[in-house]
Design goal:
The chain is built from nine helices and 22 strands. By secondary structure, it is an alpha/beta fold.
Length: 403
């Protein structure tokens, strides 16, 4: 895709304002809005990036971190100079845990955990990319999916009341049914726990000379702002869309990790679907760390009938989290049930269905509350709404090593 057209497809119609020219640097940076929220984005369009192109990316990431807004990178190319690449990596590490970083891998040279994707929170791969958290069949679909993820990670929303309703009996179907089918209309229920990055208005366009990196060095200068660019897709931010985005579906597919909205608020949901092995535990640990770093509450649907392999990374990730996290036990869970966010690991609440079997013991003894299936979503939202974020770990969600 053309870089300017890509930026227009990412942002709301008429909100894109270019901050650099389309020139030999190979990078275009811009301000815009996604679902009404301010973002800073950059798009590469050449086979390789020189020092000037890298300096523009550094400026975009540092400025986004200073202003508390997400940064979205549309990567067609990779840095070639070692110094330029090092400055880009350093900027992304400085922004880690402070603002969401979304990478759209549209070229093979920047995929498979290298360069931009290596330090991003969520990687969305187009047909020429690979190794993404979400893999799309076209570049246009990848950019559209980036819109959805950016909106979820930036605008956590307010909790709204959820009525009782029947749910599937368990597994993946139950986990996905917990998400709102469309973004819910906010109804004040409790003070949200989202970070202050949700500023309502876009800050005045920062000049590159005024932006400084966390290390205290001025960012490289960029050309003056260009006229606003119309969005060819003409997005309507209020149009209803599905709220669920599954991440890393091809890795340990028996474990579901997904982002979406529950009661109008962004949450992360994971479920083990009967078997928790080492690969699934590593996938779950990365997801838990990402949600914690970006202050997204967690819901765990625990159904592991068998636990095998190394689960230490998942245990460490759960214990170190700062966000509210609720566990639901709908049916049966095996003896080491504590692995899936038990009370001993600091869960905000463990909710069990009446017929749940928790390692051969009664759910009334090992759960905080026994609830009816119909009231599951309502009780989860009530618990999450009353929870508080204790601290922010700021941990970079790197892919755990699987041996």
């Amino acid at each position: 895709m053309d870089p300017v057209a890509s930026l227009g497809a990412l942002c709301d119609s008429g909100t894109v304002r270019l901050l650099s020219d389309v020139d030999s640097a190979g990078v275009v940076i811009a301000r815009g809005r996604v679902s009404g929220r301010p973002v800073i984005a950059h798009a590469t369009f050449s086979g390789s990036l020189d020092a000037d192109g890298c300096s523009r990316i550094v400026w975009a990431v540092d400025t986004a971190a200073c202003e508390g807004v997400p940064v979205v990178g549309l990567w067609h190319a990779r840095p070639t100079g070692l110094d330029g690449a090092g400055h880009v990596f350093a900027a992304m590490v400085r922004a880690s845990g402070r603002v969401p970083q979304i990478c759209v891998a549209l070229g093979p040279s920047c995929s498979d955990g290298g360069y931009g994707p290596a330090f991003s929170d969520v990687v969305i791969a187009g047909p020429d990319g690979f190794g993404g958290d979400v893999v799309c069949s076209s570049d246009a679909l990848a950019v559209e999916k980036a819109r959805q993820v950016t909106s979820l990670l930036d605008d956590h929303g307010h909790y709204s009341a959820v009525p009782d309703a029947p749910l599937p009996t368990g597994g993946r179907a139950l986990a996905l049914a917990m998400f709102d089918p469309t973004p819910a209309t906010p109804v004040a229920l409790a003070t949200p726990t989202a970070a202050s990055a949700q500023a309502a208005a876009t800050p005045a366009a920062a000049t590159p000379a005024a932006a400084t990196s966390a290390a205290g060095t001025p960012a490289a200068s960029t050309p003056a702002a260009a006229p606003a660019v119309a969005n060819p897709s003409a997005h309507n931010p209020s149009a209803p869309t599905s709220s669920a985005v599954e991440l890393r579906a091809s890795i340990a597919p028996h474990l579901l990790t997904a982002l979406g909205r529950m009661g109008g608020h962004t949450v992360g949901v994971l479920t083990d679907s009967g078997h928790l092995d080492g690969a699934a535990a590593a996938k779950a640990a990365r997801f838990v760390r990402m949600c914690d770093a970006l202050r997204v509450p967690l819901v765990v649907v625990a159904e592991a009938a068998e636990v095998s392999g190394r689960t230490s990374k998942l245990l460490h990730a759960l214990v170190s989290t700062s966000v509210p996290r609720v566990t639901v036990v709908p049916r049966r869970i095996c003896a080491p049930y504590f692995v899936m966010n038990s009370r001993s690991l600091g869960a905000s609440a463990v909710l069990a269905w009446p017929d749940a079997d928790m390692a051969g013991g009664s759910s009334r003894k090992r759960a905080d509350e026994v609830i009816s299936p119909c009231s599951t979503r309502r009780r989860i939202v009530e618990v999450l709404a009353s929870g508080r974020v204790r601290r922010s770990t700021g941990l970079i969600p790197l892919q755990p090593l699987i041996l």
